[in-house]
Design goal:
Layout: H1 2-10, H2 14-41, H3 46-76, H4 82-112, H5 122-145, H6 148-175, H7 182-210
Length: about 220
Amino acid sequence: MLEQFFELLKKKPLSEQIIEKSIDSLLLGKQMYLNARTALRTRGNIELAKSVLAEDKIINKSERSIRRKLLTHFALADKIDIGSGFAISSIVIDIERIGDYAKNIADLALLMEDKYNCGPFDERIQKIENDIESMFDKAVKAFEKDDEDMAREVVSLYKAGISYECTKIKDAIIKEDMEMSNADAVVTALYLRFLKRIAAHLFNICTSIINPFPRIGYKEK
């Protein structure tokens, strides 16, 4: 019994464990996104797509673990910052949703096998993909260091570029006669939706760094 007690004392404070586990989950979300993107865009990368489905279970398990640690922290801590606790809870939900959308992209890869081609939108979609990768890197740094300026860069990147461009390309697919098969057009529209949602959840995570809890997911006042 005493041995277990001393082992508990040696562990990092729960607050540190929660932050570290959240960052690890966000990094896993980034890896899932990169793997899913590669599986869809390099054609026939079935095993990589399947690995994303397995990683989704890990990220879901991590979310439950963080929630338990938060509850324990609230129960044991002498002084509690309720707003920060709610913010962390919101962040882990966003991370879990990123995993879900990465899984959706992997599902598209498994469905299309080696048939997918986004045709005339290839370069524009590549830019969106690269911007989202940059958002992940900046979001991790902002979260890790509580860096508001870095968080604002993520917010700006989403608002000024990714959200608008995803919508613009989807509108072009619907309204214009593009040289794409029906299957490629549908997959491209779905892919853009999933990309936009991943970026939106990264946006939400970074608004939690610069905004009080009631304004998470909204622009900074």
